[in-house]
Each structure stands twice: as structure tokens, then as C-alpha cells.
Amino acid sequence: MSQFLSVRVDPELKARLREISTLTDVKESELIRFFIIEGLSQVGLNLKPVQKPKGENLDLVYTPTLLPQYIKQAAIERAKSKGMRLGRWIAALIQSHVLGHPVVVQDEVSALRESNRNLLAIGRNVNQIAKALNENFYETDRVKMEILNELQSAIQQTDDRIDDLVRSSQKAWCAN
Known about the structure:
Layout: H1 11-24, H2 28-42, H3 69-81, H4 86-99, H5 106-135, H6 145-172
Helix pairs in contact: 3-4, 5-6
């Protein structure tokens, strides 16, 4: 059950709140609730991510939402930038915020698959090097340092790409 909270504010703050409410088409009470939650999150008292329930019905449910036209249009543009339809994008946004981790979209899945292919190729190269060293361990000069450096560079590039992907995915679903 909801509880009521009364807060005294000076006239300037009240006017600013009313202005933000008008600009965003969000009720003042909803803004205050949002600011309280954001403030708690800033001091480390934010809401904990929800855990997926075990054994419960996980069927999808239809949840209609009313939005002002300008917000819907902006959401459509953001959804397009992720290669998604509006409904899927809104569901992913909600899922990201409730579960506490970003949702991976098709472009990111493709990039991860490419990274996996690169890592498999690197693994094959390492196996070939190991085989050559095991067969002729007296002929270690066959394995050139420049080849090992190229291998290290390829691993680092793949690692950097995965890090970039994870960072961009996390930023994509923030509410900032």
C-alpha cells in the first residue's frame, strides 16, 4: 500500500518542479517520486535487480502504455537506431532496468559471433604452434617472435572490441 509524504519547498523550487512537469508531461508527484528514487540510488540505496523466478509462469503479458506523441516519436527513433521495433525496444528497456543488466541486440550478437570466430582462429594458431614445438622442441627458432607478437595483438584487439561492445551495450540502456 502506498504511503503519503509531505514536503515543504520554497516557491522557486515549486515553480521549477511545475515547469519540468509541464515540459515533460509528467505529474509533479511522479517527478518527486523519481527524484527520491534517483537520490537514493546516488547514495547507494537503489532498488535491487529482480531475479527471474524459478518454476513460475513466465508467459508474456500485453501491457499497453500511453505516451505523449513527442516521446513516442523519440522512442521510435531510438528503437530504429538499435534495429528494433518500438514494442521490442520498450520491452528491452524495461527488462534492462528491472533485471539490472543490458539486453543484447542483434548487432551486438553479430559482433560477439565475429569475436568468437576470431578467438577460434587464434586458438587454432596456438595449437599449431604448440604442435610444432612438441614435434621439434630443439627447433624453437621456427616459432618467430613476430608471429607470437601478432597473435598477442590479435587477442588484445578482440578483447578490446568485446570490452567496447559491453560498455556500449550498458550505456545504451541507461536512463540518462
